[in-house]
Design brief:
Elements (H helix, E strand, L loop, with lengths): L2 E7 L19 H10 L14 H11 L3 E7 L4 H8 L3 E4 L12 H8 L9 H8 L1 H10 L7 E4 L2 H5 L7 E5 L13 E2 L2 H15 L3 E5 L5 E7 L6 E2 L3 E3 L14 H7 L9 E2 L6 H18 L4 E8 L5 E7 L13 H8 L4 H17 L3 H5 L1
Helix pairs in contact: 2-12
């Protein structure tokens, strides 16, 4: 009997003419409500973490080679539809929209209904999205990460004792949301102004951390336990950014400067680094993966300090997986460097999850 796979996702709405949120038709009541609630915010990146239809279609097509795929868009009626469908397991790429636990909403609902779910559990997802709490766990386990504090007010930024320059970003965001060329602060006035802006726009605490001036890498990890492994490293090439831009892979670099029409050669994969540095980066990434108890897959961002030592920046247990190579999605890029097609990647991750859940291989069942 074929395995029934529920695909949980959030689909991006059509981009409104006004990036702050125009009153346009949307594919779900949840999106309409989101625009109404956020229409007063200057937040053009509100849906940056959600997937385009092309990505959802590509994931569904890959999973369809393993079993029956049931599409479950994570809208307000998701719990009822999930309960009615009762798939054998859920392949989860839904990021959610509101709150510090939004990435854990789908797996938490699956857990409530005793339906197995691919990828990390609600605790790990919530922990990774709360960048301050994640860094506390990393510090406890001895995983290198930059010194930091969490600011909840303008005064917290005004009284910070860390040496400049400092880097600031929202605590509960991903996909470059809230990270821009203004995130690098060279003095207290810049820090206070940027922190105040982020507090107002994103309505959440702000992470302030020591700036890491060295090279940056992203590490795609597959597997569980002792079988967890790193795919070829992806290095970021900041020398291709516009003249005068700081070496930051933020909103501008992800969504504005690097386009299909005008692509930037932002990534090098496999990264050309020494064997010693590669080993240190992989060791730090795997240590973070295990400290937070991620499952099945995760993309981990690592940046070197002034001494060249790798520091874990953050964990992304729901990694971006855009199928078009021109989109520079790092996890598929690392998979291609390892000799895997996009379908191979999705099938492999589903197989890893099913072996964890059911103790047997999906790939073997359909071979």
């Amino acid at each position: 009997m074929a395995v029934r796979i529920g695909l949980a996702y959030n689909q991006k709405p059509d981009a409104p003419a006004d990036p702050a949120g125009a009153d346009l038709p949307s594919p779900s009541a949840a999106v309409t409500a989101a625009r109404q609630l956020r229409s007063d915010l200057d937040q053009p990146d509100l849906y940056a973490e959600w997937d385009e239809p092309a990505t959802i279609d590509a994931v569904a097509a890959a999973l369809a080679t393993l079993g029956e795929v049931i599409r479950l868009e994570a809208t307000a009626d998701f719990p009822e539809r999930l309960h009615a469908a009762r798939p054998d397991f859920v392949f989860n790429i839904a990021e959610g929209l509101y709150g510090p636990n939004r990435e854990g909403h789908v797996p938490a609902i699956c857990e409530f209904y005793d339906i197995p779910c691919h990828a990390s559990d609600p605790l790990a997802l919530g922990l990774c999205l709360h960048k301050g709490r994640a860094k506390e766990v990393l510090q406890y386990h001895g995983v290198p990460t930059a010194p930091f504090l969490v600011a909840r007010s303008r005064d917290d930024a005004r009284n910070v004792a860390l040496p400049f320059p400092l880097f600031v970003k929202p605590c509960f965001e991903g996909s470059g949301k809230g990270v821009s060329v203004r995130s690098l602060c060279h003095n207290r006035a810049e820090l206070v102004a940027r922190t105040e802006e982020l507090l107002r726009v994103y309505r959440q605490p702000v992470l302030i951390e020591t700036w890491l001036p060295g090279p940056e890498f992203t590490v795609a990890i597959l597997g569980n336990g002792d079988e967890a492994r790193c795919l070829p490293l992806v290095a970021l090439r900041f020398d291709v950014l516009p003249a005068g831009a700081p070496p930051i892979y933020g909103y501008e670099a992800k969504w504005l400067w690097d386009t299909v029409a005008n692509p930037l050669d932002l990534f090098e994969c496999p990264a050309r680094v020494t064997d010693e540095l590669r080993a240190a980066i992989e060791q730090a990434a795997l240590a973070a993966y295990r400290a937070v108890e991620c499952r099945d897959w995760c993309r981990i961002d690592v940046r070197c300090d002034a001494a060249g030592q790798p520091n874990v920046v953050e964990l992304n247990p729901l990694p971006g997986i855009l199928p078009d190579p021109r989109d520079n999605s790092c996890f598929p890029k690392a998979a291609r460097a390892a000799g895997m097609s996009y379908d191979d990647l999705i099938r492999t991750v589903a197989d890893i999850a099913w072996r964890r859940i059911a103790g047997r291989s999906l790939l073997a069942e359909v071979a």
